[in-house]
């Protein structure tokens, strides 16, 4: 069922045509102007800042977004199409998914980068190389914070599927998808600047990013979000009422 949610539009996307007029460049960046629109997704904002999407942030049709993701990140068109569809229906008023790193919509404008919230999230990135466990810890912490203080907190099963993809995004865009790791410096630079970290040595991956690859990394995050540990640590189970060992 979870795979069905993730890949519902796969076959429809196969015939999607990529426009040939994409003018973006990973090495060329321009900050948004006063009349330019930016949303809660840092990746979409970054694509606009690099002109893989319209720099004014408007008229983001499905065709334009799919083309931008393909040109900037080498995303398979089927994957880009699916991401567009899921983003529209999964979280129209974002609560605290990890990837937004902004305030919940309930608390006001969630389109602006929030340094305080970002610092809360990256406090769980405890090593120079971030792995799935550290990213999952950030996700859990943000969700708990949101549920505790946002009276309109909503997080459906479909939102969870979308959120897992969001949390996996730093690994997919900048890291090692097989190992499930990413350099923390690249991720911090990206979030704080909404800019591709080319000056730190990053470049677009050569291999096409597919649904299968994203599902693999999202599965790592899903497994890492479980707070249940293995029970083979040599501890005896005690009755919760009487303390009797058995």
TrEMBL record:
Keywords: Heme, Iron, Metal-binding, Oxidoreductase, Peroxidase. It comes from the Eukaryota. InterPro entries: Chloroperoxidase (IPR000028), Chloroperoxidase-like_sf (IPR036851). Coiled coil: none annotated. Residues 25-219 form the Heme haloperoxidase family profile domain. GO terms for molecular function: chloride peroxidase activity; metal ion binding. Its EC number is 1.11.1.10. Its cofactor is heme b. Belongs to the chloroperoxidase family. This is Chloride peroxidase.
């Amino acid at each position: 069922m979870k795979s069905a949610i993730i890949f519902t539009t796969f076959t429809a996307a196969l015939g999607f045509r990529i426009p040939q007029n994409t003018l973006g460049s990973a090495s060329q960046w321009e900050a948004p102007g006063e009349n330019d629109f930016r949303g809660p997704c840092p990746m979409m904002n970054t694509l606009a800042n690099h002109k893989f999407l319209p720099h004014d942030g408007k008229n983001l049709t499905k065709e334009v977004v799919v083309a931008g993701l393909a040109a900037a990140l080498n995303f398979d068109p089927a994957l880009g199409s699916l991401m567009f569809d899921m983003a529209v229906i999964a979280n129209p008023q974002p609560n605290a998914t990890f990837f937004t790193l902004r305030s919940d919509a309930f608390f006001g404008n969630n389109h602006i980068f929030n340094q305080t919230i970002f610092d809360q999230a990256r406090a769980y990135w405890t090593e120079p190389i971030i792995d799935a466990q550290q990213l999952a810890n950030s996700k859990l912490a943000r969700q708990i914070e949101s549920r505790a203080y946002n009276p309109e907190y909503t997080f459906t099963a479909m939102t969870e599927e979308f959120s897992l993809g969001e949390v996996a995004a730093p690994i997919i865009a900048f890291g090692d998808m097989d190992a499930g790791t990413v350099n923390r410096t690249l991720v911090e630079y990206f979030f704080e600047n909404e800019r591709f970290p080319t000056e730190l040595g990053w470049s677009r991956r050569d291999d096409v990013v597919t649904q299968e690859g994203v599902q693999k990394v999202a599965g790592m995050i899903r497994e890492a979000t479980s707070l249940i540990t293995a029970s083979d640590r040599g501890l005896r189970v005690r009755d919760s009422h009487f303390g009797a060992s058995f």
